[in-house]
Structure formats: structure tokens, C-alpha cells
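Can anyone check this?
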Amino acid sequence: MALHLDCFSQVSPQKTVPDTILQPEYAVTSIPTRATQPMVCSTPEDVERMRRACQLAKAVLSHGRELCKVGVSTDEIDAALHDMIVKAGAYPSPLNYRNFPKSICTSVNNVLVHGIPDSRPLENGDIVSVDVTVYLDGVHGDTCATFAVGDVDEEGQRLISAAKACMEAAIAACGVGELMNVIPVAIASELAGTGTGFYVSPTITGHGVGEFFHTPPTVYHAGPVLETMEMVEGMTFTIEPVVTTGIPPYRTLRDGWTLVSLNHCRAAQFEHTIIIKKDGAEILTA
């Protein structure tokens, strides 16, 4: 198991997407439109568009899981998932978003988020978060999971389980009329009950998602909670807590994206896109 401390591996050239595929506004300029309002699905057609995009993201992530094996590079995983997304008639949302050079994010071991796929082969004992977002029919579907590579130690397995449980607890707390601040409360309660001493990063937040990649609300996973927006029926957003094995000092690498812990703390992340319904929340990427 190797730690990611700087940009030692090679990043292959950015891939392209055929012009026949509908592309988001930043595909050429790299500059996303600043969304000021949450995505709220007001028609059945809106819901179905979100569901189709999210189900494609789920399928792509499932294929990514199959590829997370010893000796496979994250660049190879990116290439395979890029091709799968494009063949489905969709655009890989991270590609050229604020100049991000790849089609997915792959965050290995002590990388919290936004790891850039590169030539480093995965090793036995690694854990890797694969973050997939696709743009299909004019909307984005976003999901992520952390996978074990080969034989992962007990702490790593508990970390992966804890991150997934935190996401699930947060989703269960959502519903019409709830405030966004129920999410970090639910996560804190879930993590406290594990007795692991793991830590939820307050830096990494979820976000609204739909016709734009990132919209309000900001979804905080740990306190202090600054977002008290009320959940309304049809609102779509992500819940994506990052759980670490300790409280890490961290920094962003020279690539401008990769956020790493500097004290060997490993990180795991799970993410779903949800839609608020009258009776709670529907997980669109499940």
C-alpha cells in the first residue's frame, strides 16, 4: 500500500467526446455556469431525466468496481469508464470542468478527493474511491464508492464500512420540510456509535445537482453547520461524506485538484444523488 504524496506518476492526454453528444457548457471553455438556485424537479419528465442519468452513473461505477484490481492503473480505469460513458451517449461530467483533465476521479489511500487518474498501478491492500458523474439528456447524475483492492487490512475495511454507513444515515434523515443541517447531525450520531475514532472531513461537501453539475444547497457533512435551507419535494442533491482514520493535516497537490492527508490517514467516501419525496428521499443512483 503506497501513499500519494505528490505527482510522481504520469497522466495521459485528455480524452475527447464526439460533437454528436450533448455536452455541458464548460466542455469547451472549462468554465461552468454559476448556478444560484437548487435543482427542483417540477415535472415527471424532469424526474425521469435525472433517473436515467443517475442509473447510467450507477452502471459505470459498477463497472469501475470490477476494474479495481491489483496491477490495474487508475488511468486504465478512467479510459474504460470514459469509453462506456461515451458509448451510452453521455458526457463524463468531470472532463474539463475547471480544467480537470480526466473523466472520473480516483482517490487512493490517503487521497481524500479529486484524485486524477494516472499510471500508478493499484497495489494489494489499497483502497480507492471511484467518483463518477455523467451528463445525459441535459442533466448530471453523480455517485461514488470506495473499493478494496486485494487483501485490505481490518482498519481499512472498517473505514469503508463506516463511510458507507454515514452516507446511509444521512440519507435516512432527509425528507420534505427537514433542514439541511439534519445531515451532519445524523452522520455524527452514526460515527459516534461505531467507536472507531474515525473522523468526518468538514472540508468536503455535497451539492445540488441537475441541469448544472454543482448548484445550491451546499451539503455539509460535519459541523459547524452553515446551511439551513429547507428540503422541498423534487429537490436533488448529493450526500458524499469523506471519512478518515484520524484528523489529517492536508494539502492540495500541484495539479490543483488532488487533496491528500499528510499524516498517513486513509480516506473513504460514498456518494449518492437523491431526490426529496413526500415520504423521505429516493436514491436515484441506487
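Reply from J.R.: I decoded it. Helices lie at 26-29, 44-67, 74-87, 154-172, 182-192.
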